[in-house]
Write a structure and sequence with these properties.
By secondary structure, the chain is mainly alpha-helical. The chain has one domain. Strands 1-2-3-4 form a 4-stranded antiparallel sheet. It is built from 10 helices and 4 strands, in the order H-H-H-H-E-E-H-H-H-H-H-E-E-H. The chain is globular and about 65 Å long. A hairpin with a 2-residue loop joins strand 3 and strand 4.
């Protein structure tokens, strides 16, 4: 286990996943702050911290559940004809549906941030919260909504890194715990940075489109899908890491050029 966690692939996956979890968790922090700010001032910090810790536990439980489904690799349905062959398993279905969800959610979020940036904030502001318990329940609901794409991203980044799926699960849990701790400790500085550089969050959502496409191709590869006798291959994760690193480098250059101007 330790040898795997200290390997180059695992460290790169952990750093990339933690970065994405933090970038994608900014909206979560904003909405949690809105919910907590409806309470008396002495309860706001308590509600935020309790809510985030419970949210972390909720995400870990969901990771166990989704990882269990992804672990069901045995085909339960086979289809063959002259141009298409596939062997469906629950693993392939979860990855395929998850990939479609990530592409849909990311595209919707990008459109919303461009056209209706305050839509979600206005809907949360309209909800009535009068007690600490109500605020915590609201925070858990908000986090559940935001945790689906987070968990699918974790699955996409770590699936296939090691033959033993438990190793990948441990890596995902570490990334979630680190990202939540960082968000608790540095929520305001991170939020100010994203407010100052909104393109970083759009870039994070664009990465999800890449991960969603990778999940779809991986689902096709794991179900041994063949089109006209040609088998669908999996996309090496190194390509994904390179695309993310290159995009971040270009964004860094853009921001540096903008500051000089």
């Amino acid at each position: 286990m330790l040898e795997f966690l200290l390997s180059g692939d695992a460290i790169i996956a952990l750093l990339t996943l933690t970065f994405l979890e933090i970038i994608l968790g900014i909206d979560n922090i904003v909405f949690i702050s809105i919910a907590a700010n409806k309470l008396p001032e002495h309860q706001r910090g308590k509600a935020t911290n309790i809510g985030l810790v419970l949210a972390m536990v909720q995400r870990i439980i969901l990771l166990f559940f989704v990882s269990f489904l992804v672990g069901l690799k045995k085909p339960f349905y086979e289809f063959e004809n002259s141009w298409l062959e596939l062997h469906l398993s629950w693993q392939a279905i979860i990855l395929f549906v998850g990939g479609l969800f990530l592409i849909y959610k990311s595209t919707s979020e990008i459109r919303e941030k461009v056209e209706e940036p305050s839509h979600d904030e206005d809907s949360i502001k309209g909800k009535v919260i009068s007690s600490l318990s109500q605020a915590i329940v609201q925070i858990l609901i908000i986090d559940f909504i935001f945790s689906v794409d987070s968990i699918l991203t974790a699955i996409g980044m770590t699936n296939g890194l090691h033959p033993n799926p438990n190793y990948s699960l441990v890596l995902m849990i570490i990334a979630v715990v680190i990202s939540i701790i960082i968000m608790i400790a540095f929520a305001n500085p991170i939020r100010r940075f994203i407010d100052k550089h909104p393109s970083m969050q759009v870039l994070g959502l664009a990465f999800l489109i890449l991960i969603g496409f990778m999940l779809i191709t991986e689902a096709a590869h794991l179900s041994n899908t063949q089109f006209f006798g040609n088998e669908v291959g999996a996309i090496p994760k190194g390509y994904l890491y390179f695309a993310i690193a290159f995009s971040l480098f270009v964004e860094f250059l853009n921001q540096k050029t903008a500051r000089k101007k």
